[in-house]
Target: Phosphotransferase
Amino acid sequence: MAKGFQMDTEINRNDTLKQTKQAALHALQKYEINWNSIHFIQISEHVTFRIAADQGESFLLRIHSAGKNPKEISSELEWTSAMKSKGITLPVAVRNREGSLVTTAYTDDGKQYYATLLTWVEGERLEKGEHTEETIQKMGELMAHLHKASTDFSPSTDFSRPSWGIHTFERDWAHLQLNHGHFISNEALELYSMAAEKVTELLKTLTSHEHDFGMIHADLHNGNIVFFEGEPYPIDFGRCGFGYHLYDIAQSILGLFPPQRVLFMKGYERIRQLHGEYIPKLEAFFIMALIEAYSFHADDSAEWDGLIEEQPYAEAILKAYLNDSSFLFVPLEISS
Model:
């Protein structure tokens, strides 16, 4: 799970923000919207801005990293358009004056970026402690609706999105091994190594078919769901790609408490039944998602203190997984 922008130092972060602000202003000139203000949101896989326009309209402007493949960006927008046609409310792309969904934008010194302008989905994120049983179950229902809507998705001939599986996991695990020292001890790394090997062995055995594999959001965690008038809506499809539905679920429940995970699964299976004995596979994907998350944040010094605090819980999960003790839906005892 690679970041799109360098944020390892304050200098790099400020330089990224300066350049992408320039690219954002350049990109906006290529759209037929009467905008009146631009508000920075965050830097992550892409840099995002909220654009306020006339008549109270809002848009989301994304500046993609310089190395981003425009074909992958277009393919993301192709899939979200297909999901919109199935009745899913989500951000959809706005075409520029040339009719393109992807806009080339430049900084003052000529550096090139790609930009996309999306419709704004109204709603508020809920913190983990703010959820009710109903909102958690609705999150599960939302994911099931996305999986159901994707079942007959037929991509175009030049469609290009990543596949989340053994190769991406091995890449992210290798990155974590090289950069773990700021928050994972060498002794604890042995636990991670055994768990990663066990996940890899499972991934080698899996086969895909339309009921358990297809286009997925791949990042539908609590921060990428907004609630409006009690209903959840998905945002930020920048990591979408091909993968197992259980992997998609694991990414979503990674940040939930065990009782909330029970509710999420209850909501999911109201809409779409999971076949067979799926919990051991889901727990393997959970470990996969955990390792990927730590790999993603390993270079970001701003995250290290929080990651250090998480390690006792992470180690308890890894030990349970290695001991074949089910851990997803029950609180674990954490060593002091």
Remarks:
- The chain has two domains: 10-119, 128-322.
- Strands lie at 35-43, 46-53, 58-64, 93-94, 103-106, 112-119, 213-216, 225-228, 231-234, 241-244.
- The two ends are 31 Å apart (CA to CA).
- The chain has a mean pLDDT of 93.
